[in-house]
Amino acid sequence: MAMVAYIRVSSVGQSLEVQRDAVLRAGVQADHVFEEKRSGLDSARPALREAMRFVRKGDLFIITKIDRLARSAVDLLTIVNELKAKEVALRVLDQSIDTATPEGRALLQMLAVFAEFETELRRERQMDGIAKAKADGTRFGRKPQATDDVVSEIRRMRAEGKLIKDIMKATGLSKATVYRALGGAQGEAAEAR
């Protein structure tokens, strides 16, 4: 029986060191640790796919926390079922879960449901916060490049017969922004002249 570990952090600025130390202490050999820096929501996680291909019947797949492996109950159960089909047990170190036991399998499924519930609550709170900020007048996204003064200037230059490329150069704006300032289709029709 081999022990294979998968460790992950969400961003490049985060460290894998704590997770790596934990799985090495658990007895995983350094060359059996698969690691990556990717979002858990990213379904294309190459190190996870590689670790899943690497494990064999009778192996033990080790992670430090459930959220390092999956972000939804569906995703987690898909991975657990894939491991089960290969006759590989899953051990979660921080939550003392081992799918080699019936209790461990039941606990894992319950935790997955609660984790998904928590994610949904977080998403709802975020959407409520965004809605409140919009209602309070907060604007999201980049500031518009073409202010009212710039739009007036663009229209004046076009009325004087300047070409779009010359307007772009004079204002430092993109072709799309210049056309939007000219009124979209109206600007395109003017360009054709």
- Sequence of secondary-structure elements: EHEHEHHEEHHHHH
Number of helices: 9
CATH fold category name of the largest domain: Rossmann fold
Sheet bearing the most strands, described? 5 strands, mixed
The end-to-end distance, rounded to whole angstroms, is 76 Å
CATH architecture of the largest domain: 3-Layer(aba) Sandwich
Find the structural class using helix and strand composition.
alpha/beta
CATH level-four homologous superfamily name of the largest domain: Resolvase, N-terminal catalytic domain
Task: Please tally the β strands and state the result.
Answer: 5
Query: What proportion of the residues is helical, as a percent range?
Result: 40-55%
Walk across the major sheet and give the strand order. 2-1-3-4-5
- Compute the CA-based radius of gyration: 27 Å
The number of distinct structural domains comes to: 2
Ranges where pLDDT stays below 50 over 5 or more residues in a row are 185-193
Description:
It is a single chain. With 193 residues, this protein is an alpha/beta fold. The chain has two domains: 3-103, Resolvase, N-terminal catalytic domain (Rossmann fold, 3-Layer(aba) Sandwich); 148-192. It is 54% helix and 11% strand. The chain has a five-stranded mixed beta sheet, with helices on both faces. The longest helix is centred in the middle third of the chain and has 34 residues, at 102-135. It is elongated, with a radius of gyration of 27 Å. Residues 185-193 have low confidence and may be disordered.
